[in-house]
Design a protein that fits this description.
The protein has five helices and 16 strands. With 267 residues, the chain is an alpha/beta fold. It has two domains: 99 residues, Elongation Factor Tu (Ef-tu), domain 3 (Beta Barrel), CATH 2.40.30; 115 residues, Rossmann fold (3-Layer(aba) Sandwich), CATH 3.40.50.80. The relative contact order is 0.15.
């Protein structure tokens, strides 16, 4: 890992967009070269001092949410100690960012790009949509987005909403959009040929979606997987994912992901 991959940046803004979900924003570092699907490890800059009170010892992997307006954006959900601590920080707090890390999304030439997001799996799709819009302005970009309840749905307004030609929402309890899961939305109009498929979300959703896409004959789908990590660059060996066709039996998600072909995973 190069020295350029380690930066200490002041937090510019925290913006709540749903119950427990928020944007972390930093000034975009000069010369940063990152792609949709890359991630960073975020942590306190060092041990000790008032700025690190309550900080977790290990960093947390966060997908790049967007790169726009001179800012580096991360969409985060407060699910544990670290993500709750990030939410509590005032503007100007320095944080240590290591990255960009991992294998990003490929950007195939397709007439339709369809993104399937479950919960905080929404995070990487803003930057992906932005890059696709820049490279393929005539392509149709669709977002299928599911949450458990209406208050968990992130707001999409203005420039963020304009990234997508179609946004379809669903909730497990039927309180917003179509009732049911996001995988259940795929019937009918979403069984077309020729679309590029992308997905991110909890493992049960991805497992069900992988089986569904395989039954539809979809090839070349790209899933961004989520696993616990301690380092982000292959040392801790924590983020293993079983392969469908070993050997080797496992892949390290931080090095050979987080973006993978779902047909290669033993779900």
């Amino acid at each position: 890992m190069s020295q350029d991959a380690v930066r200490t940046l002041p937090l510019v803004e925290v913006e709540d967009v749903a119950a427990g979900t928020y944007w972390l924003r930093f000034a975009l570092p000069a010369g940063l070269d990152c792609e949709p699907g890359h991630f960073f490890m975020l942590s306190a800059p060092s041990a000790g001092g008032a700025a690190t009170m309550g900080a977790p010892f290990l960093g947390r992997p966060l997908s790049i949410g967007d790169v726009a307006g001179g800012r580096l954006h991360f969409l985060v959900r407060a699910l544990g100690r670290a993500t709750a601590w990030f939410r509590s920080l005032p503007s100007g707090t320095p944080l240590r960012l290591v990255g960009p890390l991992g294998r990003p999304f490929a950007l195939p030439e397709r007439p339709v790009h369809r993104m399937v997001a479950g919960g905080i799996g929404l995070a990487p799709f803003f930057y992906l949509a932005r890059r696709l819009r820049h490279r393929q302005p005539a392509a149709r970009i669709e977002l299928l987005y599911g949450e458990r309840t209406a208050d968990a749905h992130a707001r999409l307004a203005g420039p963020e909403r304009d990234l997508f030609d179609l946004v379809e929402r669903c909730t497990d309890d039927g309180s917003l959009g179509q009732p049911g899961t996001v995988v259940g939305m795929l019937d009918g109009p979403f069984e077309d040929a020729g679309a590029a498929w992308y997905a991110c979300g909890p493992q049960p959703m991805l497992r069900a979606l992988a089986a569904r896409l395989e039954s539809m004959g979809v090839e070349g789908a790209q899933f961004s997987l989520e696993e616990r990590m301690a380092c982000g660059f292959g040392v801790c060996q924590a983020c293993i994912v079983p392969r469908r066709d070993p050997p080797p039996a496992y892949r390290l998600l931080c090095m050979e992901g987080p973006v993978v072909d779902p047909r290669e995973v033993a779900w």
